[in-house]
Amino acid sequence: MPGGVPPRMASAGPWGRLLRHVAPALPLAGGALAMRLLDRPGPAALLAAGAVALSLGRRLGLGARLALAAALGALALACAAWPERMALLARLLPVAGDLLLAAHFGATLRPGREPLISRYTRHDAGSRLAECAGYTRGLTWLWTLLFLAVAPLHAAALLGLPPFPAPVAAPLVLGLTAAVMLAFFLGEHVIRTLRFPQFGIATPARTLRAVLAATLAHHA
Questions:
Q1: Which among 120, 147, 148, 145 has a CA at the least distance from the CA of 216?
Q2: Would you call 76 exposed, middle or buried from its count of C-beta atoms within 10 A (0-12, 13-18, 19+)?
Q3: Of 34, 35, 81, 96, which residue is 20 to 30 A from 25 by alpha carbon distance?
Q4: Is-contact 136 118, C-beta < 8 A?
Q5: What is the pLDDT of residues 22-81, one digit of tens each?
Q6: Half-sphere exposure for 180 (CA within 13 Å, toward CB)
Q7: Which DSSP string do the residues of 133-196 spell out, in sequence order?
Q8: What residue ranges do the domains of the chain occupy?
Q9: In angstroms, how far is the first alpha carbon of the chain from the final one?
Q10: Which segments cross the bilayer (predicted)?
């Protein structure tokens, strides 16, 4: 074929490329959930770490991939040697999720990078990034700090540390923080509508369409 591009690759489109990007990690993530439901915390922690490593490793160099592989090997040995500690690690998986999301948003705030929400705004047909770049950068900062703030709160609740008397409080704490973050997400749309009336009404559906479009463009 001219240009050396296989026909299957050329016709895959952004949806196909996105699917190929996430597909390898899905069995590991599903296995982690199944192990957690079966009360097998060690394998759950190992499979979840493998899913994260596989997703991150596609963007890393060879040295970083080898380091990830070594870390997974060490984690597998730890699962066999210290099952009680692996149970603790599995319990703290929500905290790892908080930190990963904070890193996902925060990494785009480095010099020379475009803030994540600015990238999403570029794919919102009704918005003009030139008029709201400062706002989108500040919003990216707020989400980064919010995830960083809930991580120690979740850790304390999951471990039964003060001010929480026992891990039984964890579901309530996780539910309340999820409700607060949902309220923040919805309330920001009201603020954005009032601050930038020229962009029209900001809705969650419109935001999710922009996020999806930006994600597909990233894998185009």
A1: 120
A2: middle
A3: 81
A4: yes
A5: 666 677 778 777 876 777 766 777 677 777 666 665 555 556 656 656 666 666 666 666
A6: 11
A7: HHHHHHHHHHHHHHHHHHHHHHHHHHHT-TT-SSGGGHHHHHHHHHHHHHHHHHHHHHHHHHH-
A8: 1-91, 92-220
A9: 20
A10: 62-83, 141-162, 168-187
